[in-house]
From TrEMBL:
The lineage of its organism: Bacteria, Pseudomonadati, Planctomycetota, Planctomycetia, Pirellulales. The chain crosses the membrane at residues 20-36, 65-84, 91-113, 119-137, 144-166, 186-202, 214-245, 251-270, 345-370, 382-399. It comes from the Bacteria. PANTHER family: O-ANTIGEN LIGASE (PTHR37422:SF17), TEICHURONIC ACID BIOSYNTHESIS PROTEIN TUAE (PTHR37422). It is a multi-pass membrane protein. This is O-Antigen ligase. GO terms for molecular function: ligase activity. GO terms for cellular component: membrane. Keywords: Ligase, Membrane, Transmembrane, Transmembrane helix.
Length: 460
């Protein structure tokens, strides 16, 4: 077996791409998503987004370049999917629920308010699903994390360079938000993927530990600079959930008490030093406390959208077809700011495919998390925790953002990592006998020990 430290692309015994094919797939995937989701002038636009007129024009139909990009994703997905022989198919509960969701989304064209838009969105999601399946079947877990780490790191570098060139890189300014080539909230999701992939690779490939932790630190720094509260909270939640996977119940209990104790000490410190509540809230809200009472205008928007949901609660308005030009115009006039999303993944999905579709998708995500957690605990393969962590991030982030419900790089790579666990059975050769480790569990249970970097942690 090839050691991870001896190869430019980490190797696993269960189906992986050669370095050449991996590099080619990486280039296609990177340019596909960069051309559709990024713009070097984002930091110069008002509120980092499109105007209402541009949103209405985009809702009218996708451009030719965007169609070709998603077709290229479908092509690379089919190439990888049909060329793979190492991983046989299997359908788990999570995989079945995901297919049921896609079938319901496809059926929504029958009651959609804009059948043409629904069909276009179904083609896009179909292309992304094929890409995710191909990546999940042909790439190893290390390669998926490496692909995510490289793509997000390059996008971050391009974004920093774009802001410096445009003169908008001013982290010392009080109202500065790092956007790079995307909206700060979308950039926050991308940087979360960077951080989680770096953590997983650091624990999977020991020789890369220093570089991966360095990239994690850089990603975390710029995530803070985006001032995206939902992304920052989501990353902390994801890291906490991953950490809880490999700790004992006793340790979880002690850690919970310790956290409560630290928070109590913090409150005492604030009180004894006479700090104002506004100072503390400004720190917690990353310097964006001015609209915290309404979640930066989200609460009134959610109230307005609830009336639309009440009109079609079960079936919705058609898969990703609620935001027609008429709806954008009406809601923008009501809210007095340009809107093309619900800023809440749960509401967004309900508007799209109703409570039935939203329930199927949520059940698929939770079942997928359970599957990846079980496989991580069984094999000790840290790369399974990437999909688990991104799903945990999505569950929390979706309370304030809709990004994880859109065909963006982060969600598609999450689906690719999930598909490896829920659609394909990886055939692992028998492990060579090893000497018992002094840090191995002595409680009779299987799975990784409580410390990720223990000598007893199995490596593929």
């Amino acid at each position: 077996m090839i050691s991870p430290a001896a190869s430019a692309v980490p190797s696993t015994p269960s189906g992986e791409l050669s370095p050449g094919l991996f590099a080619a797939a990486l280039c296609v995937i990177f340019f596909a998503f960069y051309m559709t989701d990024h713009s070097v002038t984002t930091s110069q636009t008002e509120a980092f987004t499109q105007t209402a007129a541009e949103m209405e024009q985009a809702a009218g139909g996708g451009d030719t370049v965007r169609r070709l990009v998603f077709l290229s994703l479908a092509g690379i997905g089919l190439f990888l999917l049909l060329g793979a022989e190492a991983r046989p198919w299997r359908i788990t509960l999570a995989g079945g629920l995901a297919i049921a969701f896609l079938l319901w989304a496809g059926a929504s064209v029958l009651w959609s308010v804009d059948a043409g838009m629904t069909i276009r969105r179904l083609v896009v999601i179909g292309c992304c699903f094929l890409a995710a399946l191909g990546i999940g079947r042909r790439m190893s877990g290390e390669q998926i994390c490496l692909l995510v780490l490289i793509c997000t790191s390059v996008c971050l570098l391009i974004g920093i360079g774009a802001e410096i060139a445009l003169g908008t890189f001013k982290p010392w300014s009080g109202d500065y938000r790092f956007s790079g080539t995307q909206h700060p909230n979308t950039q926050g999701m991308s940087l979360t993927a960077l951080c989680l992939s770096a953590i997983c690779l650091a624990r999977k490939v020991p020789s890369w530990k220093t570089a991966c932790y360095g990239l994690f630190a850089v990603g975390l720094l710029f995530l803070i600079l985006t001032k995206s509260r939902g992304s920052a909270a989501g990353l902390l939640f994801a890291l906490g959930m991953i950490w809880m996977l490999h700790t004992s119940s006793r340790f979880k209990f002690v850690a919970g008490l310790s956290i409560a104790w630290v928070l109590s000490l913090g409150m005492m410190f604030v009180e004894l030093n006479g700090m104002k509540a506004s100072d503390v809230s400004d720190l917690v809200l990353l310097g964006r406390a001015e609209d915290a009472h309404s979640l930066t205008g989200r609460a009134p928007l959610w109230t307005e959208l609830s009336y639309y949901i009440a009109a079609r609660p079960l079936q919705g308005y058609g898969f990703q077809s609620f935001w027609t030009a008429d709806h954008i115009d009406a809601i923008t006039d009501e809210m007095q700011w340009a809107i093309r999303e619900a800023h809440n993944g749960y509401l967004e999905t309900t508007l799209s495919v109703g409570l039935i579709g939203a329930g199927l998708l949520l059940a698929a995500v939770l079942a997928g998390m359970a599957t990846t957690a079980r496989m991580y605990l069984k094999s000790g393969d840290a790369t399974y925790s990437f999909a688990f962590g991104m799903c945990a991030f999505g569950l929390l982030n979706s309370f304030s953002e809709s990004g994880m419900t859109n065909p963006l790089f982060g969600p598609v790579m999450t689906c690719a990592a999930l598909s490896q666990a829920v659609y394909f059975a990886a055939s692992q050769p028998a492990a060579a006998p090893q000497e018992p480790s002094p840090l191995a569990r002595d409680d009779g249970r299987t799975g990784p020990p409580y410390a990720w970097d223990s000598p007893a942690f199995p490596r593929s």
